[in-house]
Amino acid sequence: MKKQAAHWRSLRGFLAAGFVTLALVACDDSSGKTNNVNNVNNVNNINNINNVNNLNNVNNTNNQTGVCGAAAGQLFSANHPWNQRVDAAALDAESEAIITYLQGNHASSWAEFKIDGPSDEPDNLYGITILRNDGTAASSFEPTDDHWSPDCDTAPVPLPAGGAIEGETGYTCDNDGDCHLIVLDPTACRLYEMWRANVDGGTFYGGCLSVWDLNQAYTPSLRGECCTSADAAGLPIAAHMFGPDDITAGEITHALRFILPNENMRERIYVRPATHSTGSTSAGADAPPYGARLRLRADFDLQTLNPAAQVVAVALQRYGMILSDGGNLTFTALNDRFTTNTWAEVGLGPNDLMGLEWTDFEVVELGERFAWDDNCNCERTPLTN
């Protein structure tokens, strides 16, 4: 029976105090928060944020070493699609039709271009947390009905002490949300991403688990054609996340993850880099399919945004955003409980991109359209250790 996966939100990171925010330049091992953002790339002065108004003058961090040999601020090697710039890429023939459709039909207009993550509320649980394995031994889990074979892996997953899943204070899924668990293990060069994780009464329950090898040069079919992951489109969540430390660094060097209501996604169609769609999608031929990549137009006036939002906007111009999951709020970012800087310090709020319109975007060449139908069956051997 075909699975009806349609997950909801997102993330990304390197570390602070045993957890992680994928910092763009280097990991900061200081124990306190950065309280003076005027001294961190002058994020309050947009002319000094690595010259974000001049795309040719932005500092290049790709010669710095990140996690497992990746460029700083990225996960996986530079040839993976989410790490490649698309500001010079050709437009898709359907670009105008898709943008017109979104402008007139987005089912959650109240959530358009809102960011799940940034907040000045103390101890808030918005956004996604990426944990860094601190040497904790991996724990086996009991698969739930949200775990499908062969798409999902069954390998043990480390649960670092003091960690938390998405939307929760710990590892218990009390609020019945997506409860994504994401653990980066830089020693083993593995990325563990689980949907609907829950530790209850001493038992570790798990939905779909995707174990990603950070050293692997994945082919366009990633973990397998027609296969899902902890995100419906089959993509790695963490590779598309951004956090307050990226804002202080002044640059985001990868595509962002975005989501739409299922009724606004093309029914049962996906394009690269996605490897999967869902039966919950229901829109017609003018709607974007899973995997669609949109970029912010080069002529968008960055000065209409505050300095921190401009950093995100430049990433949208260069790297774009990839349709990865079903839900309401357009963007998902990191929760700042475990980052070096806080969202309040860098000056980015949840509504700071809501001045955008779909007409400010265009659709990058989509390539082959893949049908997610009864003939589209995931064929892979799940990882068990």
Instruction: Estimate the strand proportion.
Output: 15-25%
User: Assembly type of the shown chains?
Assistant: single chain
SSE arrangement, N to C: EHEEEEEEEEEEHEEEHEEHEE
Categorize the overall geometry. globular
Low-confidence stretches: 1-64
Give the biggest sheet: 5 strands, mixed
Strand order of the largest sheet: 1-3-7-8-11
- Quick one: how many beta strands? 18
Query: Which percent bin holds the helix content?
Result: under 10%
Rg is: 19 Å
Q: How does the helix and strand content classify structurally?
A: mainly beta
Cα distance spanning the termini: 26 Å
Continuous helix count: 4
Overall mean confidence score, pLDDT: 86
What does this structure look like?
- With 385 residues, the protein is mainly beta.
- The chain is 9% helix and 15% strand.
- It has four helices and 18 strands.
- The strands form six sheets. It has a five-stranded mixed β-sheet with strand order 1-3-7-8-11, with no helix packed on it.
- A hairpin with a 4-residue loop joins strand 7 and strand 8 (190-194).
List keywords for this structure.
single chain, 385 residues, mainly beta, 5-stranded mixed sheet, 4-stranded mixed sheet, 4 helices, 18 strands, 9% helix
